[in-house]
Amino acid sequence: MAIARQKRLAKLETQTKGDQIPIICEHESDVAATIDAMIAAGELTEADRVLCVYWLDCTGPNAPSDDDLRALLRQCEAEEALFSSGAVAQAPPRLLAAARRGRRIARGEDTAD
Asked: Could you report the per-residue pLDDT of 44-56, keeping only the tens digit for each?
C-alpha cells in the first residue's frame, strides 16, 4: 500500500514539476491569501492552487530568471524613489472637481444640481 502511494506521489510530482505558478508577494506567509485573491479575481482557478508556489521557491521553466529579478528590483526601486521624493501622483482635474463637489455636498454647502 505504501509503495502504491509513493508511486502515485512520484507521478503527481513529475506532472507538476514544470508547471509551477510563481506567486509574487512580499512574505511567504502571504501566499495563501494572495492565491485566494487571485482566484476571487478570476486570475486563477481552484485547480491551479496546487501548482502555486512562493516565487523564490519556484523551479523549472516558470521560475523567474536573473533578468526577471533585476527588472522587478528596478521597478521597485523606481516606485520607492517616486514616493520618497515627495512627488504625489496628481489625479486629472475632471476627477478632482467631482471629488471637491462631493465634499461640498457632504458638508451641505452645495445642494444645486
From this structure: 889 888 888 888 8
C-alpha to C-alpha distance for 108 and 113, rounded to whole angstroms: 13
Structural domain count of the chain: 1
113 in any annotated domain: no
Beta bridge partners of 21: 52
pTM of the complete model:
0.49
- DSSP letters, the chain, are -HHHHHHHHHHHHHHHTT--EEE--SSGGGHHHHHHHHHHTTSS-GGGGGGEEETTT--STTSPPHHHHHHHHHHHHHHHHHHHTT--PPPPHHHHHHHHHHHHHHHTS----
The residue segments making up the domain with residue 17 are 2-107
Is 43 inside a domain boundary? yes
